[in-house]
């Protein structure tokens, strides 16, 4: 194995391993609210376009790295879309008259007092 292939292999492993904590946390918690859906869409579109270039190259470490990026970014996009659908779906069924409005602090406080028996 020559030096460029060895360097490419090592960097591929390091890049992939550095993304695993983020991916693991997103899969475990399903909390992707900090991710922008438009950013996820752009990243995935760029990955698809870049695939034409990467897969035209001879087989090597870059194929593994790019495939990892394709799969992990695709997973993140799916999680983001599901989270947005769940947020809009549950918001439209809330007590806000179908407007997706969250209850205010006063309403939450009143609910807590009713639940605790202070207001009956």
From TrEMBL:
Residues passing through the membrane, by range: 6-23, 35-55, 61-81
Record keywords, A-Z: Membrane, Transmembrane, Transmembrane helix
Region (Disordered): 86-120
Protein name (record): PQ-loop repeat-containing protein
